Input
Amino acid sequence: MPRPIWSGSISFGLVNIPVKLFSAVSRKTVRFNQIDSTTGSRVKQKRVSAATGEEVSYDDIVKGYELPSGEYVTITEDELASLDPDAVKTIDLEEFVDLVDIDPIFYDSAYYLAPSPETQKPYKLLVTAMEESGKVGIARFVMRTKQYLAAIRPADGRLLLSTMVYADEVVAASDVDLFDGLDDVDVSDRELEMARQLISSLEADFEPDKHSDTYRMAVLDLIDRKAAGEETVIAAPVDEGAGSVVDLMAALEASVAEAKKARTRHPTAKSAPEADSAPAKKKAAKKSAAKKTASKSKAKKKAPAKKAS
Output
């Protein structure tokens, strides 16, 4: 069972709701140690002085900020501690905004906000009110001597908190040189239509469980095989020709065709003959009925009239 990493309360107006913060994400990665290839032992890192080459004890190390001149300004732990924000145990909701107004680029880490057993009612009241209003709370709180900006949103009757980056931490698109001249590029109506068809052919509902970290699984599989004594063969790198120029329309048309084939091959998709058989049968039935109606009307016309007595 996950353990809370922070305890405090949500504060808005004069209302305080005690909560505990739990990580909503458990990142999975394969961690390696550095090994000496000649002895097979772990490699240890030492802190050494750039001037003397001798190891420096931890007690003699201070933080230093490098100036443009190459000199350093040293800062002590006490000096930094004096600047720490007040370690208040509240998440202060400052305003409520629409979720669509928050660009996802501002989101950082995700957490659950869980209520204490005795304060579930005010917690539920806040969640319900936020769900009905469709609003997201923007808040500030301090965790481990660092102040965070956060967005709190309701999800399935619970509150999720996402820490956020500040505006001055977001890299502007204009700072990326490769975007230069992009606004002057023209695309034809035909190319745009093919791109729309490709997007349409790949439309699907998002299912998180459908996606997995195939690279991590491959690394773990490699480790298992090598641990079992299996020899591995490293394939030669393939030159994918990153600088080659492709025929855009040909690539789009081929992509659309392949996407349609993939949809047909999907287990839940109807095959082309099955999909077309029903309309064909209906058309055939309509034609047959039309022929019968026509033949009856002709028979009535050809029938001789009765002579008057």
Summary: The beta strands are 6-12, 15-23, 63-66, 72-75, 90-98, 107-115, 135-143, 146-155, 158-164. Residues 270-309 have pLDDT under 50 and may be disordered.
